[in-house]
Design a protein that fits this description.
With 236 residues, the chain is of the alpha/beta class. Helix content is 33%, strand content 25%. The strands form two sheets. An eight-stranded mixed beta sheet has the order 2-1-3-4-10-9-8-6, with helices on both faces. Strands 5-7 form a two-stranded antiparallel sheet.
Length: 236
Amino acid sequence: MKTALAIRHVAFEDLGAFAPILATRGWDIRYADAGVDPIDPAKAHDPDLLCVLGGPIGAYDEDVYPFLRDELATITARLESGRPLLGICLGAQLIARAAGARVYPGSAREIGFAPIMLTEPGRRSCLAPFADDPMALHWHGDSFDLPVGAEPLASTDLCANQAFALGPAVIGFQFHPEAATGTGFERWLIGHAVELAAAGIEVPRLRAEAADLAPALADKAQRTITTWLDRLPAAT
């Protein structure tokens, strides 16, 4: 059985709609909670798939959150291994930083549902399901430069780099394709209550939008992760 290790920063930002697809395809999923569970760079090669998930801290905050040093070292070792690596939001930022790119506060916070714009490579990538229905969930304040050699896949007006690929085995999503909403979205609204209030975002409106978009988001999430897994190099 193939193993998938997901580094999780807050409990409610998990693999979401990606998890059932991985499970039905025979992947054994395990979570490591950053700051609680040990993250050992020497074991970066062990899982067949390493996923680095989102969270409300900065990819540059290792002086405040020292566990980020081991996490960055693990991602660096994983990149060197060439084995499959997937990052979402903070995870994508950490991959970008480990690959030598700059991560920094964005020009504005991007929270809520808005369309992404695919590049031509993006239309040919696992994000193809977003070509005809580009609506996605965004929840970030930071941005990043593309690592050297990365292929840009998507953008928004507020964030030039919404997704990138580093070869066939590494992908980073700044937005949240895994968040298919449904009942699990309520955990986001509770966990990010302070942030939502500070941003002046109306929770009932966001909840209603999530409910309306849930079926389409779930379908796109399933197709996205399925296509990416199908295209992984055979050697991985």
